[in-house]
Amino acid sequence: MRMFYRLDGHDVVPLPDFETWAVWFETADRTVATTVTEHATISTVFLGLDHGFGSGRPVLFETMVFGGVMSDHSARYHTWADAERGHRSVVAQVRAREMADTKIISGHWRLIKKPEGD
Length: 118
Known about the structure:
Strand content: 25-35%
Oligomer: single chain
Largest sheet: 4 strands, antiparallel
Helix content: 25-40%
Distance between the termini: 44 Å
Strand order of the largest sheet: 3-4-5-6
Number of strands: 8
Structural class: alpha+beta
Shape: elongated
């Protein structure tokens, strides 16, 4: 079972051991995409470790939302292409939620907090 991976461009390459992975990981640019909205930052990165833990195809990419209405939301993917699509999807979800929580009051945009549970 392989656990350690690196990127060669957008291609995933298995590595033989932790030490080889750690040397690569220390200086690697692992960013797939980063998007900043009005209230959140959405980040998608290559993890380098199989977060599927050997059960099927390796899960190697993750999108996380920091701040805003979907803070701490995450999604994981198998490939760079999946991660790019997933990133765009999460960004669209965050923006839609931000717009749903915003209303026009007296001609000005204001953030309206919805009651918990809605």
